[in-house]
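sanity check this:
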Amino acid sequence: MRVGPITRTDIVRYAGAGGDFNPVHHDDVYARSLGLPGVFAMGLLGAGYLSRVLAAEFGASTVERFTVRFRAQMWPGETLDLAVDDSVPTEQEGVRLVRLSASNESGDLKITAEALVRVTGPAARRTTEENS
């Protein structure tokens, strides 16, 4: 899945939804006073994009754990490619380890994530049937 380009409107809307009003995300003068080229998106905005892919692929009710690691700032104008790798073996029966990533159009890694999802049970079957 591809999202973007990220706009300042996306950033400000996420600030309102998430309550993150740090001026580094919406005030260019402030961001530049810190030595940055300008405002940048919240890491959790990118994590939200990855969680949307995860829920679309497996169903939100199957997610047992979701961990995120922020790798680099996301800048207005960047487009993100979101990748899912569910081929990671796990020793837990009925559970799949899923690795996700978000990279910009230059291939710079912005966010990585891992999730444990249930692949058995009623919720997993519904998701499988819905994706068919």
